[in-house]
């Protein structure tokens, strides 16, 4: 079986799987644990983000962590044909009201009579999120229930309820806790036992190599005796052996007269574990429990280039490792939810997992609650990426409900940002604002940085889009106006005719001479530049080695995206092979936080002034997934939720490629060689666009010539199209 | 020993006690548990307010409950003459930084070198409030430590800390947890065992009478057997016997082969307990654990009228029962923190306990956190009482630190209220606003109610005062201006020349005909009326039986205060004896939520449409404490913290009275008969003002005639003054 037929089989299998998995909202009678929307996400994020340790010390975030509301009222009105008994479960103390009358005690079952009735459940919990699970023949707890943190149901002296509460009710939040015994507060990621690849024993020490970067709980098997055991974790062997300077470790005091298998309580990132122990202690074997979020790959990519396939595989593994309770930055060190990092994970996710709950969990955890006292993660650019993340989320999923529910939180965050503009209507770093942009030597953050204005402008466009969805016409008008004003200012302020580029910043009223890649590359794929300007930027910035080079995969993501958007797939393919291939040649089993080909040996592991400070498994290292899906397989939505979409394959010099791009309700499968394109889609109405040196043909399907060797063909859902053509 | 000498002895004893108890801030080296200010109060209030039950069902509040910040950084800078080792304790996970460098692991001790150093401790806890306790020879955790929920200490790529964080640091909050093992999260009120006064046994039932209203945990002694036990609590015997309609109960399923003493887990309010049990169960004796906040009476009152003395005692007991984790409304039912109720408790507190932590705990719990989404307790008037409570708190205690720390929360609450004004600049009930005023039949809440504008006006004056303390000059100017505008409008809008009063409201632009007591009586003691208007209001409203009578002790408080402020102590004394004496004649052992002398028998127990809905131990029933202290003993501060004060005794027809009024640093003791006044004060510089028919004398002290039979004399701290005079 060649790769191609294997892939087709896999795709067929996946299609069946996803048909089973997709929930039809109209039929949904699946009872699930529900809560105040956003609260569980905040609670779980607090738990996860406070698990970071540095050499055994607790190392929490430096921004505000919010809390769930501790007292929530859940309700729904029903119209029953016949009476039904429902089971009630709650996380926390609770009471139950039927038609606004409180039932005695704490009922675990209640019978709802036939006819119109209203069921309220009010829950209090401080240590966990108030949540309920309700299950009856037709009545179930799901996202159609309404929730509030203040029901304002006061009574007057006669006992009459106010009835004019002015309370805002939201739809309940949920995830996938579909069993009453599967308590949200007890959530754990899945684990599976993994064996070591290589174990090297010496007296009082064991060095274990798990063969590749991994994450989980080390298991000491046959542990016996009394004494000290220390575990030094390493993403590299050098780090595991550097007991004084490695980033993570665990010290145990063991007292086990009988041999036991002990699983370490904290999950760590590592490939190597260096275990040092007293000679009064015996350790049998060492293995681990690999910890992961069970979410299947829906995106696929294979090509004629084995190195590129390896890059795709390692990128996919890197993204999986960083897709956990939330999309995190990297598995060794922070394990925090950084908005700029997560934003890229969202985009990759749309081409690999299409796991929307992971996107919304992460967006909600980042946003937290009002009042806004800081930028997200304290970083100005990261506030703006949050808005961009919602823009993309809506484009890829079409989820209006999310936008409507959280539009008020979008508004208050945007007001925070707008209130920090200077007299020119531009943002610059005030006290407490971290202007990040990128890790780059000597990068100036002073004054009005063009890149930040660009992100604000796009965020304002996002607000206008969401205001329309939330039916806030006045807001839409205002945000559109602010965006248009700022967009005009971008060009009058930063565009330098001589440099053919946007300059980096304006300081003390004077545009600087400095040209950096950041604003310029974003301006391309935001489509803020006209065609001429794009060409100027391509030549004078993107392809100009005199402009400071980007060394993080983080910003390489956008640089390569900009080049792809300019049709430079051939060039980008070489860059990918150089850059990600370069990491592979150094033995990378996951992609790094930063890679500089000029560095040597253990220099690759250093960062933040620490010899092993660098993360060797960082989500932003996985961008080839996104680039290959969007710009080589060439699939992207042209209206929300893939109602319409474009398939514009570009081999970029490959002989052939094939793959699958997930959409909300199905996958789009593509095969493309120099002679043939095959497309089959489970979703929406697509346009296949391609270039051919001669007139292409597709049995019985109409192909329209668009001039300049470009052709288009409509793609209907469910039908397989085969096009014969000759690649340019 | 007559009452008078007994009192003097008691006072001397108390003075000694308080000398020992008073902490001198300059010397304070008392280590205490500290937290983010306001957070412990919110957490403890959530715990307390969610303990309400109604016939066994959990009955939480209907307003938003906030949470503590789950991640807090505590720090302090020290300059040590020599190194010292300090012990560290924390509630939650924590790390320790010395001079911004994180120490490994979780240190329980740290040595601070000599010289200038900075110690940071960062704590995370979700289920309880992050708190620390630090104790060394000179270094201790106290309110001089600084805290924040976002330290914003990001690092750049080289590991350098930002150093320009823009973080707001507050002074740490604390209470009295002065021992490392006395954990704030484990707080419990004190208990002591109380015996029953009378036990009536029948087969399968025991009726216990504890002799008076009380609060605590019932203890079933010698409990044995298997079966059901039900406890029906009653503030009255009728309620305890009304097993179907009483307000509180507990059902137990007992299975005790051996006789045990069982303390019920929930604290309840009761005088009577009706215990019903299966014949398979044996109960030996029944007693209880009385639960209370250990805080001593500093205020005292005795007079020639035994009934008045009884009123004072029962009022004091009523206030004690309702002074718990916080000042609550009543002990049987809500046990919630109602701002209007608490406001009165604050005032009584200044004349009985002078327990400032109870005031600030309650103010902070009520206020919660931003954003403001509702009035306090959802009630418009209750928002305003919160501001008034701070005004009084500052007057009585002079605590500028509290005002400075929480001025931002005052601002945001005031903005909420101001944003709800209508086009006339007046407040009226919008959706979600409960306009309460009083429990009174047919009382209109429609339109622009004069009473609400009056409270808003006083709140704005409070904001102006506090703005000056917080050095917000612009705010002070604005609030003063808004207050002056509104005050002027009060008279142009509501003052009715023909009715000699402020009318109740304006509806649809038309002042109503209705005159009620509320706005008029507040306008007197707010001193908003001129002397002529005061007399008009006194005659045409306060002493006019045609104006709807007040039936709640809640509003009686203000009505009688207004009359006292007009010199009607003789009249008010009779009213007190009628009203509170009336409750005593019905057997009250604590004062009620509502008393209507026209009601008969069990009618007195009904409210809210429920036969035992009324609370028979309600804080607002204890107002004689305040009236007797402020308007009979006649003591009140004339500048913050009793730096200056007035003593203006008024016998109101009594032959003699004597008592003690607490101040921040000492007590003011007064004896007053028709012939003699004795004053001794431990605080400030006072003015004794009194009326005498003939020329008074005081050995060696200068008495100044002020005309109209009024005399004044200065009172210096620590000296006893005896004045011979002849009462008017």
UniProtKB/TrEMBL annotation, chains A, B:
It comes from the Bacteria. Transmembrane segments: none annotated. Keywords: Signal. Residues 298-630 form the Alpha-L-rhamnosidase six-hairpin glycosidase domain. Residues 1-28 form the signal peptide. Coiled coil: none annotated. Residues 72-275 form the Alpha-rhamnosidase-like N-terminal domain. InterPro entries: 6-hairpin_glycosidase_sf, 6hp_glycosidase-like_sf, Bac_rhamnosid6H, Rhamnosid-like_N_bacteroidetes. SUPFAM superfamilies: Six-hairpin glycosidases (SSF48208). GO terms for biological process: carbohydrate metabolic process. This is Alpha-rhamnosidase.
């Amino acid at each position: 079986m060649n790769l191609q037929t294997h892939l087709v089989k896999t795709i067929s299998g996946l299609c069946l799987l996803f048909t089973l998995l997709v929930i039809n909202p109209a039929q949904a009678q699946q009872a699930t644990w529900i809560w105040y929307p956003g609260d569980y996400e905040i609670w779980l994020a607090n738990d996860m983000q406070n698990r970071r340790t540095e050499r055994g010390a607790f190392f929490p975030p430096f921004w505000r962590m919010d809390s769930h509301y501790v007292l929530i009222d859940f309700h729904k009105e029903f119209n029953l044909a016949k009476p039904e008994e429902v089971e009630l479960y709650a996380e926390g103390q609770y009471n139950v009201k039927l038609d606004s009358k409180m039932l005695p005690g704490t009922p675990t079952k209640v019978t709802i009579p036939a006819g119109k009735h209203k069921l309220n459940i009010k829950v209090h919990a401080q240590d966990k999120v108030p949540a309920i699970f309700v299950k009856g023949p037709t009545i179930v707890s799901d996202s159609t229930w309404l929730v509030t943190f203040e029901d304002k149901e006061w009574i007057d002296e006669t006992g009459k309820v106010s009835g004019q509460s002015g309370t805002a009710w939201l739809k309940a939040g949920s995830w996938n806790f579909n069993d009453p015994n599967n308590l949200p507060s007890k959530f754990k990621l899945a684990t599976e036992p993994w064996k070591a690849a290589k174990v090297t024993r010496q007296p009082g020490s064991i060095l274990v190599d798990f063969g590749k970067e991994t994450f989980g709980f080390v298991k000491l098997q046959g542990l016996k005796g009394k004494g000290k055991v220390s575990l030094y974790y390493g993403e590299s062997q050098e780090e595991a052996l550097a007991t004084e300077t490695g980033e993570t470790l665990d010290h145990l005091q063991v007292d086990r007269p009988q041999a036991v298998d002990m699983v370490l309580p904290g999950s760590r990132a590592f490939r190597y574990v260096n275990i040092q122990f007293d000679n009064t202690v015996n350790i049998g074997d060492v293995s681990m429990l690999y910890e992961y979020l069970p979410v299947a790959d829906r995106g696929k990519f294979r090509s004629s280039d084995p190195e590129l396939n390896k890059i795709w595989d390692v990128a996919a593994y890197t993204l999986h490792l960083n897709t956990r309770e939330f999309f995190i930055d990297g598995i060794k060190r922070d394990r925090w939810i950084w908005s700029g990092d997560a934003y890229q994970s969202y985009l990759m996710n749309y081409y690999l997992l299409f796991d929307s709950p992971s996107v919304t969990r992460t967006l909600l955890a980042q946003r937290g609650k009002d009042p806004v006292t800081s930028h997200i993660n304290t970083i100005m650019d990261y506030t703006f990426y949050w808005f961009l993340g919602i823009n993309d989320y809506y484009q890829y999923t079409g989820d209006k409900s999310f936008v409507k529910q959280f539009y008020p939180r979008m508004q208050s965050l945007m007001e925070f940002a707008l209130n920090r503009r200077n007299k020119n209507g531009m943002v610059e770093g005030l006290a407490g604002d971290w202007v990040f942009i990128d890790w780059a030597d000597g990068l100036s953050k002073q004054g009005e940085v063009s890149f930040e204005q660009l992100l604000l402008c796009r965020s304002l466009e996002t607000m206008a889009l969401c205001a329309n969805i939330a039916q806030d016409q006045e807001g839409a008008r205002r945000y559109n106006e602010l965006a248009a004003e700022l967009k005009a200012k971008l060009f009058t302020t930063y565009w330098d005719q001589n440099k053919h580029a946007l300059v980096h910043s304006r300081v003390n009223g004077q545009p600087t001479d400095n040209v950096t890649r950041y604003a310029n590359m974003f301006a391309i794929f935001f489509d803020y530049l006209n065609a001429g300007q794009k060409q100027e930027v391509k030549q004078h910035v993107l392809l100009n080695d005199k402009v400071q080079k980007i060394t993080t995969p983080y910003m390489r993501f956008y640089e390569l995206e900009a080049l792809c958007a300019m049709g430079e797939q051939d060039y980008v393919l070489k860059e990918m092979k150089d850059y990600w291939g370069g990491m592979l040649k150094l033995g990378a089993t996951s992609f790094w936080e930063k890679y500089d080909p000029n560095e040597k040996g253990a220099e690759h592991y250093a960062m933040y002034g620490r010899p092993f400070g660098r993360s060797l498994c960082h989500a932003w290292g996985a961008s080839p997934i996104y680039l290959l899906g969007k710009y080589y397989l060439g699939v992207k939505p042209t209206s929300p939720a893939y109602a319409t979409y474009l398939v514009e394959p570009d081999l970029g010099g490959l002989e052939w490629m094939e793959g699958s791009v997930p959409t909300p309700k199905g996958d789009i499968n593509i095969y493309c060689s120099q002679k043939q394109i095959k497309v089959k889609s489970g979703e929406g109405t697509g346009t296949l666009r391609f270039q051919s040196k001669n007139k292409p043909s597709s049995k019985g399907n109409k192909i329209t010539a668009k001039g300049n060797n470009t052709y288009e063909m409509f793609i209907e859902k469910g039908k397989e199209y085969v096009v014969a053509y000759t690649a340019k």
